[in-house]
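Milestone M4 deliverable, item 7.
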Amino acid sequence: MAHMSLSPQSKVDLEWWVNNVHAALNPISHGTPTVILTSDASKKGRGGALFDNDGKVKLKAGGRWSLEESLDHINYLELKAAWFTCQALCRDLHHVHIRLNIDNTTAIAYISNMGEKTKACNELAVKVWKWAIDRDIWLSAAHIPGRENVEADTESRLEHENTEWRLHTNIFQILVKIWGRLQIDLFASRLNAQLPKYVSWKPDPFACAVDAFTLTWNSYSFIFPPFSLLGKILQKICEDKTQALLIAPMWSTQPWYSHLLNCIIDCFYFTYGQQNPQSSTPRNQGQEQPSKDDINGLSGVRRSLRMLSIPPDVEQIILSSWRPSTVKQYSTFFKKWTTFASSENICAVSPDIRDILSFLTSLYHRGLGYSAINSARSMLSTFVVINGQGCGTHPLIKRFMKVFNLRPALPRNNVSWDPEQVLTFLKTMDCGTLKSLTLKLVTMLALLTGQRLQSLHLLDIKNISLTDSSLKLRFGDALKQTRPGFHQREITLQQFEDKQLCVVSICKDYLTRTEPLTGQHSKLFLGFQKPYKPVSKATLARWIKTTLASAGIDMNIFTPHSTRAASVSAASRLQVPITSILSTAGWSNTSTFAKFYKKLFVDSSTVFKIH
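Output delivered:
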């Protein structure tokens, strides 16, 4: 008796037959095809088309072969083109009969017979049929003359040089090491995708979706797009409130450039060499060197945390601890710091104490005062650690900050204007227009509450209770004085007998007039011109400045924020209990009030004049 040895692949095939022979059926007829495809291949690329019931082209797909693929035999490429066409154009189809019209008889034979003699083509035919069986799809193949296979043939010969470029793999890996593992490549193809999961521009055999702009961007994405789409991409990032690793050129004259700078959380600056761009690495041997214009105030903190291997979720919580106003303030000095570090060829995230002192000294020589230099010190302390502590507490830094003695930060002025002067003007102010009514209300609230412009800007109709005798204001957002265990308490303003100065009556009139204009907005203060949208804090400041100037206050001396000092100083002069002043203004102790806000009243028209 002779013994025969079976190859591992033969055993796999026999096992399939043993498990499926009772269920495997092959009807004589599978009916009329419900989907008609054509495919074609050239030595450059592949192409395919999907037709509707009227024989018109419904969808096309195509792409280049890689250099290795282009060396394969044309019969293999024809069969591969048919498979890629099925995957690209029929990704969501199940339980259908697909007719493949191909102008290559060998590819037709391998599909019709579910394989043939040549090993490479046979393995590919098995993949094709496994794909079909998993979707309960029946495939049939038919010959189409080459002269009639126009659409697929055209797609197979198209050049795609302008879209099939990619970031060098070494640089991509550096970026991943810095900013963490990415989840999806939003603008890619089969040949240039950096990640297994990617979105293509046109139908692609292995893409998870087509056209990134039709999706919600809720994953940590890699984006290396055609640069003509950058404006649209930045808008989409903001709309979906997502984070992404975006590759963009430093084209400062482009309309999208300022938007890009506003969106940046962190950045990595690199250039390509002229002779061999693919082997180039970021300058300074791969260490990230931010552009002086392309940096955000917390990017140094982020780098410092990642150097300590802080987990991404913990990192995000730490970064969120800074208020937007603080980030904005630090951003200015971080740009100055990175520029200084670059010019002095020092590491921006781990300098020594001499580098920091040299930087602070350079700010002093530029004419910056104590407050500005102290802000720069605070910014550096957020991410530069020396001897286990923020660099701002280093003895030499603390001694250097005695620069206050050379250039002290004195108050803008030590006096305030009398609110009585402004109230007299407001009493006579005509509120016939929405503009005048708005200016009167915002100025009255600033004077009566002693609140910052930020607080007034955040006032929301949902947090306002208005009756015939009182107006109650609650603050639903975090304010500057908000901290653990403390938030601005509710402020109650009572009705006043003089209707011209009664904030209850003025607010009621304002809400009545703006009710038809609010739409989906709920902020209290709206613009008094179309489209009547909520206004910014800067706009409120401009309105108060206009009103105070009209009342005779010299705005060359005072600022819109001076309403806070004028309000609380007047309350103190009228012997309002200090506890009421502190709680209304949002202070926890008397030192802030006494040091910065309790001021004498003067006639602003005569202050600082030389006689």
